[in-house]
Amino acid sequence: MNAPTQPAHVTPQYPQREAPAALIEALSQRFGTQLSTAMAVRELHGRDESAFTTVPPPSAVVFAESTNDVQDAVKLCAEHKFPVIPYGVGSSLEGHLLAVQGGISLDLTRMNKVLSVNAEDLTVTVQPGVTRKQLNDDIKSTSLFFPIDPGADASIGGMTATRASGTNAVRYGTMRENVLALEVVTASGEVIRTGTRARKSSAGYDLTRLFVGSEGTLGVVTEITLRIYPLPEAVSAAICSFPSIAEAVNTVISTIQIGVPIARVELIDANSVRAVNRHSKLTLREEPMLLMEFHGSPASVKEQAEMVQEIARDNGGADFEWADTPEDRTRLWTARHNAYFAAVQSRPGCRCITTDTCVPISRLADALLDSVREADESGIPYFLVGHVGDGNFHMGYLIDPDDDAERARAEQLNHQVVTRALQLGGTCTGEHGVGLHKMDFLVEEAGGGAINMMRTIKRALDPDNIMNPGKVFS
Amino acid sequence: MNAPTQPAHVTPQYPQREAPAALIEALSQRFGTQLSTAMAVRELHGRDESAFTTVPPPSAVVFAESTNDVQDAVKLCAEHKFPVIPYGVGSSLEGHLLAVQGGISLDLTRMNKVLSVNAEDLTVTVQPGVTRKQLNDDIKSTSLFFPIDPGADASIGGMTATRASGTNAVRYGTMRENVLALEVVTASGEVIRTGTRARKSSAGYDLTRLFVGSEGTLGVVTEITLRIYPLPEAVSAAICSFPSIAEAVNTVISTIQIGVPIARVELIDANSVRAVNRHSKLTLREEPMLLMEFHGSPASVKEQAEMVQEIARDNGGADFEWADTPEDRTRLWTARHNAYFAAVQSRPGCRCITTDTCVPISRLADALLDSVREADESGIPYFLVGHVGDGNFHMGYLIDPDDDAERARAEQLNHQVVTRALQLGGTCTGEHGVGLHKMDFLVEEAGGGAINMMRTIKRALDPDNIMNPGKVFS
């Protein structure tokens, strides 16, 4: 583990709140060397990929190795009414892991076993610390795969907590559609199961989907049963450059509207291509670009690609450039997944404020083009990537964290992007979650009545407000 | 409206509980002729397609015409702490509509407008009284369709409440995957919205999916935003007869496991074929049969069908018989959808006890074949139909409602079917919901901890227990 790259600062908004000594003592007795109070470990667990740099770290970190460990940690925290914050790999972009009301960080990375692979049922059950790449490596020999791929090599637990998606969601859905069942440790330390391995069910309230996207605020997910898919018989990937973002977006809109079952269709802007070229030593044309992938039988893949090429050409797109071998495809998608880190590295010392709006597909051009224009006018370095087949895109504003004026300008841009998306019938967050950063936007989006219902559920399931408090709603 | 075919009887389990006179008076003042206390109307709203025939009818029926009507009806019932039971078309198979603790039936059939069709976004927003056939008629000119099709021409509100699915779910998912957002009147009469028209979102708790499948126990759904789909370029339907059920089931298991994107794959047994032949004047071979449909481009449809024909042949299946024209296909699927009614009519005066288990696909043969053997041994007339691509099948036991011994035997068979499904990792209900009939099974399936969490949510959102009480859990 590395020490954090920036020290944590105490600010008036987030005063240090230390765990009671008796709690630390009880945790120490129960967990021995699985408990750490070393400042470097605490600081590492007190931050994530978000632009929040000024929150005090958690009081201690428990490295859970079993559901029973999670139960006992939660029970001890419950006794002392002290917050518990589940921790996966720390790749949240929204401050989910930050101990804004103090807390014990519950590190789940040692719970990293693939518990069962039911290849004949296209399901798998994993512990929350398994990462998406680890899972796919693990099931490679079955000719099955798990499609959900946020950019980072996130943990399945974290992806469940944030209702994550990524590049394949346009074809395979998000965590919402692909989590079949969960084991959860509740706020009182009880273990419950929320579903079965059946593909569908009408058996009572959908607790599974209540926990998917609950951001650690209702309980700790300790097992996840997922759908997996047969590797497609044929896969082909292509890139296509466009004179402008508008033309790329219009190609995507038409592709979705006529129902081409495209597996991936990602937009990256010229800024992102530039950063990716530098970072991954590639020579992609530094123009707005769609990265696409088609899955199916050889004939169907060919047919899909021809249809999209025709639409692209009508919109001024270039000829497709193909990535035919698995190695070429891996290189292409690794470059795409690295776009975020490549862009962040393009401005040394910066932090990134990332938007995450998602709009109905017909409104994508409206949502996106104005956002680009405003970013260009602002003078703040930025990049744009998007899971555009879903109507979801990310503006990344690369700010100097010590320049308050720049941060304020970036937040203003973010605000404009969200306001526009809501006006267009969309959501403030397509896949990153609310965390700390979007609580006000959530109120605006959902309305007071829905927020009150969420609060009522939170109070009912976590009456002492110990599960990752201060996230989702204030 | 017709008078009920059987009179309601009061039994000790379900004593009559009449609405307070002051509530009826207040409803009458607010709703005038939209309120009915006529016994024929009450009795019609006090039963459904289930085998429960002995529950007293609701005290009155309010015919809501707007969200505001629903609000006012709920508020008046809330003032008097008296139950409200939302009513769609009465096609529940599980006693959802029965006033087991007394109640006001809230008939939503007049709220039957398609409010908006966003063809370019593949979404539609409807009132709860719109039926699935009405919706598809309404959007026919857009070349889009809504795929979810429980056998009955159910209301979209009822389908939302029970998390319904049907024959297309294997390809297009269930109501869980296809409801994007809801407007809901809560137990206190407040109106909330639970989502946006964006295809995906990570914005807070998934209230949409909490209400989908909540069986009217948490609030009344007053608007539903749904995903719709481009009509496939090519559709082809086929039937295939098999020497035995086992061989048909094994064909389905292999088809799903290799990932053929089949749109529909339905099993019907020889008993069902016989009933359908009589009912719909058809001449289908009276053997176990798969009814299939393939969607896609012409080439892809051909390819899919060839793959499945090959698998079927390996399993002793006959040559596919094709239904090529839209008319032939409609006839075929109408026959399938009428299987339930055809079977019920094959034993005059009977009521049907229907199982609804769903298991992981690899366990389907185990779950199904023992159920058939036990039914054969019981001597009770029965039929079998199944959405077998999802691992979901229905045994329908046709009982004489006045023969307690026969009812008990059928319930015993049902119990065995469910117990086996749970042992195989499945669910007691794939698509009909829990209602009155599966409350004990739900406890067995979900476990005490999950049931308690459901109860906690119910108590938090409906503290006076007025929303369809006595369903899902006792």
Largest interface, by Cβ-Cβ below 8 angstroms: which chains and how many residues each? A-B, 92 and 92 residues
The number of distinct helices of chain A, counting runs of at least 4 residues, comes to 16
SS class of chain A: alpha+beta
Spatial strand sequence of the major β-sheet of chain A: 15-12-14-13-17-18-16
Level-2 CATH architecture of the domain at 114-230 in chain A: 2-Layer Sandwich
Low-confidence stretches of chain A: 1-12
Shape of chain A: globular
Protein name (chains A, B): D-lactate dehydrogenase (cytochrome)
EC number (chains A, B): 1.1.2.4
Family (chains A, B): Belongs to the FAD-binding oxidoreductase/transferase type 4 family.
GO molecular function (chains A, B): D-lactate dehydrogenase (cytochrome) activity
